[in-house]
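User: Can you predict the 3D structure for this chain?
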Amino acid sequence: MRDAVIVSACRTAIGSFNGQFADVTAIDLGVAAVTEAIKRAGIPVDQIDEVSWATYSRLAAVKTRPVR
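Assistant: Here is the predicted structure, written as structure tokens:
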């Protein structure tokens, strides 16, 4: 088994319910956060084996379930 390494983290912007991010899916917000985390880490994308994220909003979790 290889060791797990956390090289970077990034969170999405915060907004109010049905506010400026109402039409943005949890997946799209997650992609933006992961893209920025990779940029901050400064490592080649081909060195990444796995990416994990979770949603906070119950509505987003019901809609997309990205962590299940």
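Helices lie at 26-41, 58-64. Residues 25 and 54 are 13 Å apart (CA to CA).
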